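Look over both lines before class:
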Amino acid sequence: MKWMVPINQLDATQERAISDIVDNVRDDHLVSGFAGSGKTIVLTHVVERLAALPLGRTVCFATFTHALKDMVTSGLSASALRKTEIMTFDALAKDGTVFDVLIADELQDLKAQRIKKVVGRYKSIVAAADFNQRIYRFAAKRNEIDELIDDASVHQLGEIHRINENIFQIATTIHPDAAPKREPQIRDDDEKARYYEAPSRREEFRAIYAEASRLAAPEYPSAVFFPSKKVMKDFIDVLATAHSWGVPPELESNADEWEGPYDAMNAFLDAEATELHIFGSGSGEMARSDDEAVVYLMTYHSSKGLDFPNVFLPHLTDETSLEPMKNAKDEEERRLFFVAVTRARQRLYLSFHGTPHRFLEEIPWEYVDEFSPARRSY
Protein backbone atom coordinates (compact mmCIF):
# COMPACT_ATOMS: atom_id res chain seq x y z
CA MET A 1 0.00 0.00 0.00
CA LYS A 2 1.43 3.36 -1.05
CA TRP A 3 0.99 5.69 1.93
CA MET A 4 4.13 7.82 1.87
CA VAL A 5 3.69 11.33 0.40
CA PRO A 6 6.62 12.58 -1.75
CA ILE A 7 8.46 15.62 -0.48
CA ASN A 8 7.23 17.75 -3.39
CA GLN A 9 3.59 17.08 -2.43
CA LEU A 10 3.81 18.23 1.19
CA ASP A 11 2.10 21.42 2.34
CA ALA A 12 4.12 24.47 3.40
CA THR A 13 3.70 23.83 7.13
CA GLN A 14 4.96 20.26 6.80
CA GLU A 15 7.96 21.39 4.75
CA ARG A 16 8.87 24.06 7.31
CA ALA A 17 8.62 21.57 10.16
CA ILE A 18 10.93 19.10 8.41
CA SER A 19 13.52 21.75 7.55
CA ASP A 20 13.50 23.25 11.04
CA ILE A 21 13.86 19.85 12.71
CA VAL A 22 16.71 18.75 10.46
CA ASP A 23 18.52 22.09 10.78
CA ASN A 24 18.19 21.98 14.56
CA VAL A 25 18.50 18.26 15.19
CA ARG A 26 20.37 18.80 18.46
CA ASP A 27 17.22 20.31 19.97
CA ASP A 28 13.99 18.60 21.04
CA HIS A 29 10.91 18.91 18.80
CA LEU A 30 7.21 18.06 19.11
CA VAL A 31 5.02 17.64 16.00
CA SER A 32 1.33 18.03 16.72
CA GLY A 33 -1.87 18.13 14.67
CA PHE A 34 -5.30 16.67 13.99
CA ALA A 35 -5.70 13.10 12.76
CA GLY A 36 -4.70 12.99 9.10
CA SER A 37 -2.49 16.08 9.20
CA GLY A 38 0.62 14.05 8.36
CA LYS A 39 2.55 13.78 11.62
CA THR A 40 4.03 10.36 10.82
CA ILE A 41 4.79 11.49 7.26
CA VAL A 42 6.74 14.46 8.63
CA LEU A 43 8.72 12.21 11.00
CA THR A 44 9.47 9.76 8.19
CA HIS A 45 10.79 12.55 5.95
CA VAL A 46 12.94 13.75 8.85
CA VAL A 47 14.48 10.26 9.07
CA GLU A 48 15.05 10.25 5.31
CA ARG A 49 16.74 13.66 5.39
CA LEU A 50 18.92 12.80 8.38
CA ALA A 51 20.04 9.57 6.72
CA ALA A 52 21.17 11.55 3.65
CA LEU A 53 23.38 13.90 5.70
CA PRO A 54 26.95 13.15 6.81
CA LEU A 55 26.09 13.85 10.44
CA GLY A 56 27.71 10.81 11.96
CA ARG A 57 24.66 10.52 14.22
CA THR A 58 22.77 7.33 15.03
CA VAL A 59 19.00 7.53 14.64
CA CYS A 60 16.18 5.37 16.00
CA PHE A 61 12.54 5.57 14.95
CA ALA A 62 10.32 4.18 17.72
CA THR A 63 6.56 3.85 17.79
CA PHE A 64 3.90 2.06 19.79
CA THR A 65 2.68 -0.79 17.57
CA HIS A 66 4.20 -3.35 15.21
CA ALA A 67 1.69 -2.24 12.59
CA LEU A 68 2.92 1.35 12.54
CA LYS A 69 6.55 0.21 12.69
CA ASP A 70 6.01 -1.88 9.56
CA MET A 71 4.25 0.99 7.80
CA VAL A 72 7.12 3.40 8.47
CA THR A 73 9.60 0.78 7.28
CA SER A 74 7.72 0.51 3.98
CA GLY A 75 7.94 4.30 3.48
CA LEU A 76 11.71 4.66 3.77
CA SER A 77 14.36 4.23 1.10
CA ALA A 78 16.82 1.35 1.26
CA SER A 79 19.59 3.82 2.13
CA ALA A 80 17.63 5.28 5.07
CA LEU A 81 16.76 1.80 6.33
CA ARG A 82 20.44 0.86 6.47
CA LYS A 83 21.19 3.87 8.67
CA THR A 84 18.14 3.83 10.94
CA GLU A 85 16.88 1.45 13.61
CA ILE A 86 13.08 1.08 13.60
CA MET A 87 11.40 -0.62 16.55
CA THR A 88 8.50 -0.54 18.96
CA PHE A 89 8.86 1.24 22.30
CA ASP A 90 8.73 -2.16 24.02
CA ALA A 91 11.72 -3.33 21.98
CA LEU A 92 13.53 -0.06 22.64
CA ALA A 93 13.08 -0.55 26.38
CA LYS A 94 14.80 -3.95 26.12
CA ASP A 95 17.53 -2.70 23.78
CA GLY A 96 20.64 -1.30 25.42
CA THR A 97 21.71 0.88 22.51
CA VAL A 98 21.75 4.63 23.10
CA PHE A 99 21.11 6.58 19.91
CA ASP A 100 21.96 10.21 19.23
CA VAL A 101 18.48 11.05 17.96
CA LEU A 102 15.20 9.38 18.88
CA ILE A 103 12.25 9.86 16.53
CA ALA A 104 9.24 9.00 18.73
CA ASP A 105 5.82 8.61 17.14
CA GLU A 106 2.50 8.37 19.06
CA LEU A 107 4.16 9.66 22.22
CA GLN A 108 0.78 10.18 23.90
CA ASP A 109 0.35 6.39 24.22
CA LEU A 110 3.34 5.92 26.54
CA LYS A 111 3.38 5.90 30.31
CA ALA A 112 4.80 9.04 31.87
CA GLN A 113 7.48 6.96 33.60
CA ARG A 114 8.71 5.56 30.29
CA ILE A 115 8.71 8.99 28.64
CA LYS A 116 10.80 10.28 31.52
CA LYS A 117 13.35 7.52 30.95
CA VAL A 118 13.40 8.24 27.21
CA VAL A 119 13.93 11.97 27.73
CA GLY A 120 16.83 11.31 30.07
CA ARG A 121 18.43 8.68 27.86
CA TYR A 122 18.74 10.48 24.53
CA LYS A 123 20.56 13.60 23.44
CA SER A 124 17.67 14.88 21.33
CA ILE A 125 14.09 13.77 20.69
CA VAL A 126 11.76 14.44 17.78
CA ALA A 127 8.29 13.38 18.87
CA ALA A 128 4.78 13.38 17.43
CA ALA A 129 1.65 13.33 19.56
CA ASP A 130 -2.07 13.95 19.37
CA PHE A 131 -3.65 13.84 22.80
CA ASN A 132 -7.14 13.48 21.31
CA GLN A 133 -6.01 10.02 20.13
CA ARG A 134 -4.83 8.89 23.56
CA ILE A 135 -6.51 5.47 23.82
CA TYR A 136 -4.71 3.70 26.66
CA ARG A 137 -5.63 4.20 30.32
CA PHE A 138 -2.05 3.98 31.50
CA ALA A 139 -0.81 6.61 29.01
CA ALA A 140 0.64 9.90 30.19
CA LYS A 141 -1.66 12.88 30.59
CA ARG A 142 -1.12 16.05 28.60
CA ASN A 143 0.31 18.02 31.54
CA GLU A 144 2.78 15.21 32.32
CA ILE A 145 4.16 15.23 28.78
CA ASP A 146 4.29 19.03 28.73
CA GLU A 147 6.41 18.94 31.88
CA LEU A 148 8.76 16.28 30.48
CA ILE A 149 9.42 18.04 27.16
CA ASP A 150 8.70 21.63 28.14
CA ASP A 151 11.64 23.01 26.17
CA ALA A 152 10.74 21.32 22.85
CA SER A 153 10.04 23.38 19.73
CA VAL A 154 6.40 22.78 18.76
CA HIS A 155 5.40 22.31 15.11
CA GLN A 156 1.62 22.54 14.72
CA LEU A 157 0.30 21.04 11.48
CA GLY A 158 -2.89 22.75 10.33
CA GLU A 159 -4.01 21.09 7.11
CA ILE A 160 -5.95 17.80 7.16
CA HIS A 161 -5.07 15.69 4.13
CA ARG A 162 -6.45 12.24 4.87
CA ILE A 163 -10.11 12.70 5.71
CA ASN A 164 -12.78 14.82 4.07
CA GLU A 165 -15.30 17.25 5.57
CA ASN A 166 -17.99 14.62 6.15
CA ILE A 167 -15.69 12.27 8.07
CA PHE A 168 -14.25 15.23 9.97
CA GLN A 169 -17.74 16.24 11.08
CA ILE A 170 -18.63 12.68 12.12
CA ALA A 171 -15.39 12.33 14.11
CA THR A 172 -15.73 15.66 15.92
CA THR A 173 -19.44 15.12 16.58
CA ILE A 174 -18.64 11.95 18.53
CA HIS A 175 -15.46 13.39 20.08
CA PRO A 176 -16.09 17.16 20.26
CA ASP A 177 -12.99 17.76 22.40
CA ALA A 178 -10.90 16.91 19.33
CA ALA A 179 -12.28 19.77 17.24
CA PRO A 180 -9.47 22.27 16.44
CA LYS A 181 -9.81 25.78 17.83
CA ARG A 182 -9.20 27.17 14.36
CA GLU A 183 -11.07 25.99 11.28
CA PRO A 184 -8.64 23.63 9.51
CA GLN A 185 -8.08 23.18 5.80
CA ILE A 186 -9.69 19.88 4.84
CA ARG A 187 -9.56 17.83 1.66
CA ASP A 188 -12.27 18.98 -0.72
CA ASP A 189 -14.60 16.18 -1.77
CA ASP A 190 -18.23 15.37 -1.02
CA GLU A 191 -17.89 11.62 -0.41
CA LYS A 192 -20.26 10.73 2.41
CA ALA A 193 -19.91 7.93 4.90
CA ARG A 194 -22.25 4.99 4.38
CA TYR A 195 -24.30 3.21 6.98
CA TYR A 196 -25.94 -0.20 6.70
CA GLU A 197 -28.72 -1.56 8.89
CA ALA A 198 -28.60 -5.33 8.44
CA PRO A 199 -31.42 -7.76 9.27
CA SER A 200 -29.02 -10.01 11.23
CA ARG A 201 -25.39 -10.33 12.26
CA ARG A 202 -24.89 -13.02 9.61
CA GLU A 203 -26.20 -10.78 6.83
CA GLU A 204 -24.21 -7.81 8.13
CA PHE A 205 -20.91 -9.70 8.12
CA ARG A 206 -21.55 -11.25 4.71
CA ALA A 207 -22.47 -7.91 3.16
CA ILE A 208 -19.44 -6.13 4.64
CA TYR A 209 -17.11 -8.87 3.43
CA ALA A 210 -18.59 -8.75 -0.07
CA GLU A 211 -18.29 -4.95 -0.31
CA ALA A 212 -14.80 -4.81 1.18
CA SER A 213 -13.63 -7.50 -1.26
CA ARG A 214 -15.27 -5.75 -4.20
CA LEU A 215 -13.51 -2.46 -3.47
CA ALA A 216 -10.08 -3.94 -2.69
CA ALA A 217 -7.41 -3.78 -5.37
CA PRO A 218 -3.58 -3.84 -5.46
CA GLU A 219 -2.28 -0.74 -3.62
CA TYR A 220 -5.90 0.03 -2.69
CA PRO A 221 -6.81 -2.27 0.21
CA SER A 222 -9.91 -2.38 2.34
CA ALA A 223 -9.71 -2.64 6.12
CA VAL A 224 -12.31 -3.95 8.57
CA PHE A 225 -11.86 -2.83 12.18
CA PHE A 226 -13.30 -4.59 15.23
CA PRO A 227 -13.65 -3.42 18.83
CA SER A 228 -12.24 -6.72 20.10
CA LYS A 229 -10.55 -9.95 19.01
CA LYS A 230 -13.75 -11.81 19.87
CA VAL A 231 -15.82 -9.86 17.34
CA MET A 232 -13.08 -10.41 14.75
CA LYS A 233 -13.23 -14.15 15.41
CA ASP A 234 -17.03 -14.11 15.15
CA PHE A 235 -16.72 -12.34 11.79
CA ILE A 236 -14.37 -15.01 10.44
CA ASP A 237 -16.50 -17.84 11.82
CA VAL A 238 -19.64 -16.49 10.13
CA LEU A 239 -17.86 -16.17 6.79
CA ALA A 240 -16.24 -19.60 7.11
CA THR A 241 -19.66 -21.20 7.58
CA ALA A 242 -21.25 -19.18 4.77
CA HIS A 243 -18.47 -19.99 2.28
CA SER A 244 -17.64 -23.55 3.44
CA TRP A 245 -14.06 -22.69 4.36
CA GLY A 246 -13.72 -25.30 7.05
CA VAL A 247 -13.20 -24.72 10.76
CA PRO A 248 -11.02 -21.67 11.62
CA PRO A 249 -8.45 -22.05 14.39
CA GLU A 250 -8.84 -20.21 17.68
CA LEU A 251 -7.14 -16.84 18.10
CA GLU A 252 -4.27 -16.95 20.56
CA SER A 253 -5.66 -14.16 22.71
CA ASN A 254 -3.17 -14.75 25.53
CA ALA A 255 -0.07 -15.05 23.36
CA ASP A 256 2.72 -12.55 23.77
CA GLU A 257 2.64 -9.97 20.97
CA TRP A 258 6.10 -11.06 19.85
CA GLU A 259 4.77 -14.51 19.00
CA GLY A 260 2.43 -13.35 16.24
CA PRO A 261 -0.94 -14.31 17.75
CA TYR A 262 -2.75 -14.24 14.38
CA ASP A 263 -0.27 -16.31 12.36
CA ALA A 264 -2.30 -19.53 12.51
CA MET A 265 -5.48 -17.74 11.45
CA ASN A 266 -3.68 -16.04 8.57
CA ALA A 267 -2.39 -19.42 7.42
CA PHE A 268 -5.98 -20.70 7.46
CA LEU A 269 -7.27 -17.70 5.48
CA ASP A 270 -4.47 -18.14 2.93
CA ALA A 271 -5.18 -21.84 2.56
CA GLU A 272 -8.82 -21.02 1.77
CA ALA A 273 -7.67 -18.48 -0.84
CA THR A 274 -9.51 -15.56 0.76
CA GLU A 275 -8.61 -11.86 0.49
CA LEU A 276 -8.67 -11.62 4.30
CA HIS A 277 -5.45 -10.94 6.19
CA ILE A 278 -5.13 -10.06 9.88
CA PHE A 279 -2.65 -7.29 10.62
CA GLY A 280 -1.37 -6.29 14.06
CA SER A 281 0.53 -7.47 17.16
CA GLY A 282 3.38 -8.79 15.05
CA SER A 283 1.21 -10.75 12.60
CA GLY A 284 0.52 -9.94 8.98
CA GLU A 285 2.30 -8.03 6.23
CA MET A 286 1.58 -4.47 5.14
CA ALA A 287 3.42 -5.04 1.86
CA ARG A 288 0.97 -7.77 0.84
CA SER A 289 -1.45 -5.19 -0.58
CA ASP A 290 1.20 -3.80 -2.96
CA ASP A 291 0.50 -6.61 -5.42
CA GLU A 292 -2.73 -8.21 -4.20
CA ALA A 293 -6.31 -7.21 -3.47
CA VAL A 294 -6.35 -7.44 0.33
CA VAL A 295 -9.00 -6.98 3.01
CA TYR A 296 -7.13 -6.33 6.24
CA LEU A 297 -8.73 -7.30 9.55
CA MET A 298 -7.59 -5.62 12.77
CA THR A 299 -8.77 -4.24 16.08
CA TYR A 300 -9.43 -0.55 16.64
CA HIS A 301 -6.26 -0.40 18.74
CA SER A 302 -4.10 -1.95 16.00
CA SER A 303 -5.40 0.57 13.45
CA LYS A 304 -3.82 3.42 15.37
CA GLY A 305 -1.58 5.55 13.14
CA LEU A 306 -2.57 3.70 9.94
CA ASP A 307 -4.94 4.68 7.15
CA PHE A 308 -6.70 2.86 4.32
CA PRO A 309 -8.75 3.82 1.25
CA ASN A 310 -11.79 1.83 2.42
CA VAL A 311 -12.59 1.43 6.13
CA PHE A 312 -15.44 -0.68 7.53
CA LEU A 313 -16.67 -0.54 11.14
CA PRO A 314 -19.16 -3.40 11.61
CA HIS A 315 -21.05 -4.57 14.70
CA LEU A 316 -21.89 -1.07 15.94
CA THR A 317 -24.70 -2.38 18.15
CA ASP A 318 -25.97 -1.03 21.43
CA GLU A 319 -24.59 -3.94 23.45
CA THR A 320 -21.08 -3.49 22.05
CA SER A 321 -18.48 -1.58 24.07
CA LEU A 322 -15.99 -0.15 21.60
CA GLU A 323 -13.34 -0.19 24.33
CA PRO A 324 -12.93 -3.86 25.35
CA MET A 325 -11.33 -3.09 28.72
CA LYS A 326 -13.64 -3.61 31.69
CA ASN A 327 -15.66 -0.67 32.98
CA ALA A 328 -14.87 1.45 29.94
CA LYS A 329 -15.83 5.10 30.28
CA ASP A 330 -17.83 6.96 27.67
CA GLU A 331 -14.88 9.24 26.89
CA GLU A 332 -12.64 6.20 26.28
CA GLU A 333 -15.11 4.79 23.76
CA ARG A 334 -15.38 8.16 22.06
CA ARG A 335 -11.63 8.53 21.59
CA LEU A 336 -11.33 4.99 20.23
CA PHE A 337 -14.22 5.51 17.79
CA PHE A 338 -12.60 8.80 16.74
CA VAL A 339 -9.36 6.97 15.96
CA ALA A 340 -11.16 4.29 13.91
CA VAL A 341 -13.27 6.75 11.91
CA THR A 342 -10.30 8.96 11.01
CA ARG A 343 -8.38 6.05 9.43
CA ALA A 344 -10.54 6.31 6.26
CA ARG A 345 -8.91 8.00 3.27
CA GLN A 346 -11.87 7.72 0.91
CA ARG A 347 -14.80 5.53 1.98
CA LEU A 348 -16.15 4.86 5.46
CA TYR A 349 -18.83 2.26 6.22
CA LEU A 350 -20.70 2.09 9.53
CA SER A 351 -22.90 -0.97 9.99
CA PHE A 352 -25.03 -2.66 12.62
CA HIS A 353 -27.80 -5.16 13.21
CA GLY A 354 -30.50 -4.90 15.85
CA THR A 355 -30.33 -1.71 17.92
CA PRO A 356 -27.60 0.74 16.82
CA HIS A 357 -24.81 1.95 19.07
CA ARG A 358 -25.57 5.30 20.70
CA PHE A 359 -22.84 6.99 18.67
CA LEU A 360 -24.69 6.25 15.43
CA GLU A 361 -27.72 8.03 16.86
CA GLU A 362 -25.61 11.16 17.39
CA ILE A 363 -24.33 11.45 13.81
CA PRO A 364 -26.27 14.05 11.73
CA TRP A 365 -27.87 12.50 8.66
CA GLU A 366 -26.33 15.00 6.22
CA TYR A 367 -22.93 13.30 6.62
CA VAL A 368 -24.06 9.77 5.68
CA ASP A 369 -25.82 7.88 2.91
CA GLU A 370 -27.62 4.58 3.30
CA PHE A 371 -25.77 1.60 1.90
CA SER A 372 -27.70 -1.21 0.26
CA PRO A 373 -25.81 -4.35 -0.79
CA ALA A 374 -28.29 -4.74 -3.65
CA ARG A 375 -27.95 -1.16 -4.96
CA ARG A 376 -24.60 0.54 -5.50
CA SER A 377 -24.12 3.92 -7.15
CA TYR A 378 -20.41 3.54 -7.94
